[in-house]
Write a structure and sequence with these properties.
Rna Polymerase Sigma Factor, Chain: A, about 35% helix, two-stranded antiparallel sheet, homodimer, 11 helices, eight-stranded mixed beta sheet, Rossmann fold, about 400 residues, alpha/beta
Chain lengths: ~400, ~400
Amino acid sequence: MHGCQRMSDLSRADSVGLVIPEVYRHEAPFALQCGVTLESFELVYETYGELNDQASNAVLVCHALSGHHHAAGFHEVSESRPGWWDNCIGPGKPIDTRQFYVVSLNNLGGCHGSTGPCSINPRTGSAFGPDFPLVTVSDWVRSQTLLADDLGIRQFAAIIGGSLGGMQAMQWAIDFPDRLHAAVLIACASKLSAQNIAFNEIARQAILTDAEFHDGKYREQGTNPDIGLMLARMLGHVTYLSDDGMRQKFGRQLKSGDLSLGQDVEFQVESYLNHQGRSFSKQFDANTYLLMTRALDYFDPARVYQDDLVLALSNALCKFFVISFTTDWRFSVERSKEIVDALVKARKDVASTVIESDHGHDSFLLPIPRYFEVLSAYMGQLHHEIGDAR
Amino acid sequence: MHGCQRMSDLSRADSVGLVIPEVYRHEAPFALQCGVTLESFELVYETYGELNDQASNAVLVCHALSGHHHAAGFHEVSESRPGWWDNCIGPGKPIDTRQFYVVSLNNLGGCHGSTGPCSINPRTGSAFGPDFPLVTVSDWVRSQTLLADDLGIRQFAAIIGGSLGGMQAMQWAIDFPDRLHAAVLIACASKLSAQNIAFNEIARQAILTDAEFHDGKYREQGTNPDIGLMLARMLGHVTYLSDDGMRQKFGRQLKSGDLSLGQDVEFQVESYLNHQGRSFSKQFDANTYLLMTRALDYFDPARVYQDDLVLALSNALCKFFVISFTTDWRFSVERSKEIVDALVKARKDVASTVIESDHGHDSFLLPIPRYFEVLSAYMGQLHHEIGDAR
């Protein structure tokens, strides 16, 4: 029965259907911001829709902390769930694949096929593991320009991302102003707060202190820091939800009918988080998790502009759409307002909206009606602006 | 020089000076809410000030999650810091020991001298460890009544606590209405939210999954779950501070002068949290930490009153003072308002105030001028009400 369900999902008119990941190979040295040079690298990516003749209708989707290239559609008929942003990408959806050619990649340092800690280091013949160099948001953006070159995309109609994905879109606007028509920054911030960094540090410590971490060489030991990853994910997950949203979803509901007053898991929220944490630890590489959280912590594009965000954004040529959610306390409405204020001061074309939602930071992944309506309208306007001469 | 500093602290006019902990021994069975009966128990406690002839000027101070009996003064001249609430308890301080006889104990299940997981189980001859039964806030309150009986205190002038300590004061008002004149509930809630429980669960999982936990029998193995306790404390600590407070204290300050783009600790907030976590793991027992967080999770006095807090509080006879802090997001102002609203609906004598503070939940431990002024005024009024005929 589940198979039938998936078949019908696959064949729905608003699904991009079956997709096949592709690989971009960069066979030349690539110098990272940290000083290390990769001799070559690969990026795994997917595309949905068709590039028009002027190559003007491309949209780059940048993923967040634990995301990857598989944003929409299905890899095979038996796949249990579609890509992570399937509700937003497809025919008739906010990022409409009848209008746009969507590119979604796994970032450098990832663990879903792009060159990262799990890849073979050509210099040693064994996996990079903990020796994979630190990658920054700027590095990601530069690597994405190479992918764009390879795909024949000189200028994206839009670069879109939520959370860490929005930070990449912001960095594009600063570093490569003529290569995007619009940046859509969703549930992000211009830099992390001390509290954000603190949560990331606790997650990292959980991984680093796991007895199975072995200084990052867990694969050589035939093991995995499952517990550290589980704790990191549980913590992350709590910060992605809101207090209100958790109250609605779980309240103080008990796992069984009544209080047992024992040491076992008692409340449903505990059971849920445990499950989330355990399944994540089977799917995600610990060294990549460390790398991704470091990239988040270090993101601070104003730093090289005298800590002046207005100055940092002053070279941008694209238009901006900044979206935030009322109960997001990880990257709150206030943090988006800082970006909007800086863009206004820098005299940029900026639209912004605050979406009412009970779902905290996770809201950016959810099909909240008003969110999707305004995003659809904005994307429709972009499509009008770039002109469609497919 | 530090010695001289401490000497002068000790001899300051507003210090209670040197204090000697005492032990109350209950040599009869004590049935816990979970169904287990302790054959006997001990509570370690301290007192400051003098009990008047009518025994009407006693104040009970209840401690929070990681607190203990040593609330004020010094145990010895060489002690580096005074008790945990020394800024609030002493001659001329908000809880003025010239007016009140202050009792502060380590709760049952604690790890600072009262009967708990580190104590010898008389039935087995070895430490309880993980077999120490679950203790609830109601159990604590009942054990505290026995200590009060032993001290000749029929009715406390006030029972005061912050956080989990405030929950004990609330439970006293419900379970033993004629044994307190006033309850002072600071930075607390009538029950934990799903988010609160989730943070506690992550802390517990960090301890339970530590390779050195050994199902709670770490002492028999000659080891300690230092890492789990460290992570639990780091996480707790972040939730005790506010985003604003952390921004002011740490911002994005780097540990060294510039970004090293490495995997080491880079931001000062990381360094601070690591230190806090590591020192805590040397001082606190893991089984006690599990027990205390469970007591927090289970606290829900309205549960046996048809989930109606108004009904639960309707039998209370004491007056109430409810204090909360603007940036406390662990037990927010809203949670205190719920208590105040229920007290008003139950037609109780209630005063309340919201204190502006950048320091989050930790505010209740800090000498914030307006906080201490109103607490002093309230305590002065109580002193007037009980009459002083020492």
